[in-house]
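Aim 2 progress update. The chain analyzed this quarter is reproduced below.
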Amino acid sequence: MNFCSVCNGLAQYDFNCPACRGTMQDQGRVYDYYDEYSAYMDIDLAKLEDGDPESSKKAVCMHLLACAECRQQIIQNIYY
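Predicted structure tokens:
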């Protein structure tokens, strides 16, 4: 069974903003922002809705990161 170590609190990654080099803050899974029920979906089920037909075959969880300084947002793949 695969699981994201960041989502489950087992790991924490530090990312710098590509624009201003500020600290990026993890905002959670991108899938959680699809609708009000998507936060309760399994990662593998959510991957069926992301528009990438190959994503369900990849061991990756997509996280939304936001810069605390300039508010830029990026999507970061977390591999498990």
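The CA atoms of residues 16 and 22 lie 5 Å apart. The helical segments are 43-46. These observations will guide the mutagenesis experiments scheduled for the next reporting period.
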